[in-house]
Amino acid sequence: MQQNDYYITKRRLLSLLVATIFVLIVIFGRLAYIQVVWGKQLQAQAADQWTRDIPLEAKRGDIADINGRVLATSVGTYDVYLRPKSIKDADQVAFELSKILSMDYNTVYEKATKKNTSEVTLVRQIDANTASQIRELDLSGVYLGAQYQRQYVYGDFLSQVLGYLTIDNIGQSGIEAYYDKYLAGTDGTILTETDLIGSELENTPMHYIPATDGFNVVLTIDYVIQSIVENVLDIAIYQHSAKSARCIVLDVNTGDILAMSSKPSVNLNELPRDDVTELARLTKNTLLTDVYEPGSTFKVLTAAASLEEAAKGNPNAFGATHVFTNNSRSRLIDGSKINCWSTHANGKHSNQTLSDALNNSCNPIFTDIALSLGKEVMYDYLESFGYGSVTGIDYRGEQSGILVGESVVTRSDLARIGFGQTIAVTALQLAMATAAAVNGGYLMQPHLVDSIVDSNTGLTVYKNVPTVKSRPISESTSKQIAAMLQDVVTNGSGKQAYIEGYNVGGKTGTAQKFENGSLAVGKYVSSFVGFFPANDPQYLALVIVDEPQGQSYGSVVAAPYAALIFKEIINYKNIQPVS
To answer: Which residues are catalytic?
Structure first.
């Protein structure tokens, strides 16, 4: 009996010991969890209970053009805060601030005596001069917090590229959004110690954590060329009563975007924020986000593919000396009829070379080329020229275009792709592909930003380097294409882009618009893509006029405005004529 009691007692003691150890483990585990996991959070909560902070907003970096002209900047403003529990003389505070801020005395006094509130905002966004007057008064319980307002120096200038901010100063679109982490900077604060009821403790130091200003962004855009483009587009819309007009100007050898504009535009300082639909419409960069059938401007790719394949010895390709003897103005492909814009009367468009076909913009010839090369070869060139994929420009929302899948493309589809139908592209895709056709055969990645600079030290933290994405054609083929396109401007459909004394090349395009899955009667997209000097290309411009009234041909509606842009660039850069 005694032995049983002994074992029972022993078991109870052992159980008690195990339970005690378990409780101690739980307690120490909890303490460890509080120290390690909750430590920082609890310290922050304690600090928050015993301190009050005044925000110091970082100055957002400037956005400038390639020559340093500031296009977007931040103007300093100040917010006035009151801490009623730290105010010693509410009557004096109300009297002085109401006078400086032109506010009602009673309104200020009421806020200054609101003892149940630790902090109240009196007024926002006062200027530096007013803030200086308040600072000189050294009123207890009155604080100033630095804030910044974004200002777009030229209003609606370059608006779709620059983009805009949310009301919380976060990049919402354009360069402001894409480079937000560089532009934004890091906010600072002023911390003051308080007692339990929020009154500021006397003889305690303020803790100043300075804001770190954002970096400055330098664009590849040239303010002068951008101004030229925007003025010319306004003229084009006015003269043709067009719905809109767009243009890209780029350096064909680097991919740098020198100008990019869609008209109409919007004043970035006066955005219609209460109408989200209208805001999205006016700020959308349609040169990157919208697709369209390029029409005859796309024939540059088909011609380049034919020349390159002929140079490689492909028996299905047509070289520069080949003569197309089928003089019919139409082709019937799987029951689908394709016509030339010309009636071919009086032998017009008969026995054409590839250069003649480009000059005359004869659809049947490019149908023949595409079908002869076949879908595998054509799709290889579509891919290497960048169609069907984004260009990789430093901008959000770029679209990849619409390209019928190679596995499902029909002969009729392929025939129409040859002259720029049954394919939808972005304006930027077309501009970069054309640049690749004439710059020696290099498809470049486009850029809107040249560099990013530390606003405090002046050091460059990022520098754009020209990037080659692919090489679809050889230098020899590229030179042939450039020469043929120069002939288009000198003797063919692009005559209105001709500039006396300068070698200009280019291609016109006219495409009927689609709406709700069918052709829209009387609605066209007229375009011209041109470059100069044609013998050593540097500048390329793509001009697109949407729904011009009256005349619709790109040769009449778009080519003259490309010529006007080139003439102004020639004057600006003081480019001498060829001797």
So the answer is: 296
